[in-house]
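To make this tangible, we now present a fold written out as tokens:
***
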Amino acid sequence: MKAANSLLCCLAFAARAGLSAQEATPAHGGPEVVHTVYLEYQEADRGLVSWVFLVPLQNARFSKEPDFGRRRVCRGSLRLGSEPEDAVPFAWDPGQAKLYLDLNRNGDLTDDPNGVFSARSRSDQTFTNLHIEFKTRIGTRRLLADLSLYQTGLRWGNRLMVTLACHSFWAAKVLLQGQEWQVGLVENLAGQTPRRNGTIEVGLGRLGSAEDGYLLLRPWESRNQPFNLQDGSLDGFNFRRDLFIGHQAYQVDWAYDQHDGAPGFKLELRECFAALGELRLTGRFIQRLVLTGTPNPPAAGPFTVVLDRPEPTVRIPVGSYSQCRIQLEAGGAQACRLEQASPVMPVGPSNAAVLTAGGPLTNTVRIVPDEGSLSLTYQLVGAEGALYQLLHQDRRHPPSWVVYRKGEAIDTGWFRFG
């Protein structure tokens, strides 16, 4: 048997331009170089990142609300802003698939014409294009999101499970190492308090903070392409204050500040010195590699290292790296590695480290007997034995299989996604 869609497996990849490795700019012996960028608020057509929240419900009615009759209604408040008054009271009428937001926060759910939303389906109640404003110390700012609400009965107690998909981000153009980049920030509204059941408590007031956020970094010419932070692609990623791009080290500083009369984020990329060590890459077809360092005193960092189309040998900051994210490209197809964690990889000033990751990718089929039948699972395996998945999959054409007996095809079929 074989998988018909080879895709990335045997594609030859043409020679590609890479950044030459060189030492990072010294922090002394010359003028300090700081790249200052003011990011502008932007909105995407699709959700960029989503979080699952548990929202406490209230028993009390609002001072004024629509006539819900005898239908069961869920009432509560979404607490996304930094102040208690930023909470957005809501009432969800699942019987009518409607959501009412108190956008002006006056306790009246009948005087917000832009705060009434309808879901397309009563079975999957997702409310799209919710524009919410928040008052901050430096002005009013916006948020665009989709909300999916779930009736969970008594499983979560007197709480509602909500999935929030954020469309909002901040971005601008910056010139680094002679190349124009789109650099940006997607705020992490959830913070770092996951619960045992996999959800995250709402109400941490993350708006206006870059802490634990996502750094958007891609070539300027790609700025109009859609991106997602949870599909495995690496246009954006979690980052640390110490950042290494190509062959230059930076210290990253953020400030939520006012610019041209509107609130936003100021980003400073300060060029700095980093002792470098050698890293050898044995895999092929690497489009972007993101390494995350672990604290390792007295070495600087830990660094987040970003390498685009790297050469087989590169120089990166000395330290230990415990997380490797990788995106491949060949023949117009892209893939990402499913596993992020990897054994701690030490990069020293004199001894070269070796990272086996990337292509070529091999189509494989895992066969498991299952009560008189065979269970076939399609897997895309990299050079290091890790599993990969294709990005931007065309689900109309899933991978197929064929069973042969004595050279003759006796059965064929397709793998199901998921």
